[in-house]
Each structure stands twice: as structure tokens, then as C-alpha cells.
Amino acid sequence: MPPSVQDKILFVDDEPHVLQGYQRLLHEDFRVDVAVGAKGALIKIKTSGPYAVVVSDMNMPEMNGVEFLSEVRRISPDTIRVMLTGYAALKTAMDAVNEGNVFRFLTKPCSKEILARTLTASLVQRRLVLAEKELLEKTLKASIRVFTEVLSLVNPAAFSRAMRLRRYMSHVVTRLGLGGPWKFEVAAMMSQLGCVVLDSETIDAAYSGRQLTPSQQARYDAHPEIGGQLLASIPRMEPIAWMIGHQNHPVPVDSDIADREMADMRMGAEMLRITVAFDQQLRKGLSRTEAASKLARQHKDLDPKIFFALVELEPEKYETDVRTCTMDELSEGMFLDQDVITDDGALIAAQGQEITPTLILKLKSFHERNAIDGTVKVTLPRIAEASSTSAGSA
Question: Distance between CA atoms of 106 and 122, rounded to whole angstroms?
Fold first, then answer.
């Protein structure tokens, strides 16, 4: 297996002559780089990485091998980690596996043949990990796209709320400096997915704040659990499904999920609950400040930064070209600048909804049945150029 450009291997030791020996031994078959000491290695990974494999000695003065590989795992999770040490104590091996999550644990002296086999296996493992990750990401993106489009077609009002929630969530997550913001934003986007089973009358009443009948309330209260169930079977969506399923009621403390992941899931569920309530207050005519202040008084146990972020939330600044298009002139990249409502008052597409091929087919179908007009107002947004400041990308 010839090394590729991405197959760089980093050896880390506090003895320069040992590192020189690895380079002489392996340079013909592998792309070997070296770093003296853990701290220098971490700098090198950040500046010269990513590395496909990192091989570390255990006994180093600044930071031992377990601590070092744990940090490598944090900053470069796709890197395969190998421990090479003269100290073969069981506890050392267990710590390396559990804390550093090492792929192989080798003891010195280690022959060239064993080391070469280990590096080859490590490179194969990384390629498998990356291939699986790419497959999962493509599956995840495609699944989110399908669910979002289904929601926009079946229940435009729920889709419109989901897009507003996504913007609220993105702003709050940025202000709180939370890691992995994508999962919170996806949870907001998918939070109304369970509403596909609800009739338009129930949705309209719930979103406008009108009194629901007991049967309507029961159906509406069940939508988070339905949405969570729809998403739970998709790989990597389990935490997001959990957030969605728990958005309307107190989150249980006990769980067998890892503490950090559980904390993120609980935070996501709570922020969903707050952003949904915030949107409801805005729909009733309250200002951002009034809505956030009211929620802050009701949820004194939550981080005040959440409510401060909602107060500072501003509409996105766009320069937009607004035009009226016929059905044949609609194309991807446009956004509706109006609600599209049938002659009998049914909402079939919400203002702000992105024009997609599926939505075009839906609008044409309704137009052919003379249920809607033959033209719609759309916008072509372009980010306004700032005169004095430059906008950063998320």
C-alpha cells in the first residue's frame, strides 16, 4: 500500500536520537515526521497536520503519552493513535486504551516488521474511518434535506416556524460559544417534524396562541415524540432525536449516556423549549425584549446569556431583489416573499421558504387546478456589503 499525500505519520519522543532512528528505519515505506516532546508535537499537529497516525512514547517529562494522546484525540479525532513504550505495565496499557483511545499498544524494543505492520494497519483503519464518516455525513445531509422538504410541502406553517427556530438557535449557540453548533441548529430545523401528522387547523391554532380543544392539545403535545422517533433510526441523529423528543417537558437527570453528551442533549432540549416559547411570544405581538424578559422570569435556573442573546437578535440584513415571477420563471436560489394561499384559505407555502424543484412542481400543480394565482412574489437575497466592518463567516 503506497503512502498517499494524506498519510503523514508523526513520531513523538523526548529523545532526538530515537526519533532519528525511526526516520532511518521507515522513510522508504512511510512519510515519517518527528517531534521532540509532547508540547512541540501538539504545536506541530496544529500547524503541519493533520497526521494520519501519531506514535507516542509513554515516558516524557512535559506530558506523559496517555495525556498527550488524549489531547491529540481532542484536537484531531480522526488521527489514529499508537503507544510505543518500554513500560508494559497493565495499568499503563489500560490508561492508554481508555483515555487516549489508542489503536495499538506496542512495547520496546519493537522490530521494523512489527512497527511497519502496525503503521500499515493504522493507515487502513484511518481510511476506513474517513470513508465511514463521509458516508454517514452524506447520508445525514441527504436525510435532513428530505425531511426538511417533506415538512415544507406537507406543513408550510411548521416549516416556517422551524426556520425561525434555527435562526434563534444559531444566534444563541454562537453567543454561548457552544461546541458542535450544527447539532443544535439541526435540532431546531427538525423540531417541528412531528407536526406532519397534524391537521392545518390544529397547527394554525397552536402557532397563533389560540385555545386548543383537549383532543387538539393532546395531538399537538405528542409531536415532539413523533419527530424524535422519526429521526432516531438515522445514524448520528440519535442525540438530535433525543433533544427533539424532550423539547416540551422537563428533562430527566438519570441516563446511561456519557456525561458530556448528556449535558449537550439536555442543553439542546432546554434551548428548543425556550426558542419555541420565544417564537410564540413574538407571534403574540411582544417585542424581543418583552418576550425574553418574560421567559427569563419563568426560567431562572437557565443561563441568563440565553435570554440576553434573544434580546440582541436582529433580522438578517439583506439587500434583496424582489420580483414577481410566473410559475415557469421560478428557479432554485429564490425565496418566497409571500405566503401562497389557495382560494379557500389553505396555506401551501410560507413566506421565506426556499424555492426547490419539488416546491415548483407543487405550485404548478395547484395553479393548473386554478387554486392559486399564476404569479408569486420572490426574493433573490444577496448579503449587503458592509461599509465600515467586514462580516465573519460562521
Answer: 13
Count Cα neighbours of 171 within 13 Å in the Cβ-side half-sphere: 19
CA dihedral 293→297→299→302, nearest 10 degrees, is 70
For residue 123, CA distances in Å to 60, 134, 174, 209 come to 25, 16, 36, 57
| CA dihedral sign, ordered 38, 43, 46, 51 | negative
Distance CA 285, CA 282 (A): 5
Residue bearing cell 452524506: 138
Strand-pairing partners, residue 33, are: 10
> Cβ-count burial of 90 within 10 angstroms (0-12 exposed, 13-18 middle, 19+ buried)?
exposed
Say how far apart CA 92 and CA 65 lie, in whole Å: 9
**CATH 1.10.3210.10 matches 155-314:** yes
Domain ranges in the chain are 8-131, 155-314, 317-394
pLDDT digits (tens, 9 = 90+) for 220-265: 999 999 999 988 888 778 899 999 999 987 665 554 444 667 888 8
Query: pLDDT of 364-375, one tens digit each?
Result: 999 999 999 999
Cell 428557479 identifies what position?
331
> Contact, 304 vs 282, CB < 8 A?
no
Helices (H), 299-354: 304-312
How far CA 87 is from CA of 64, 93, 247, 304, 313, in Å, comes to 12, 9, 50, 50, 56
Q: Which CATH number fits domain 8-131: 1.10.260.40, 3.40.50.2300, 2.120.10.70, 3.30.565.10?
A: 3.40.50.2300
Q: How far apart are CA 258 and CA 304, in angstroms?
A: 26
Torsions phi, psi of 32, nearest 5? Answer: -100, 130
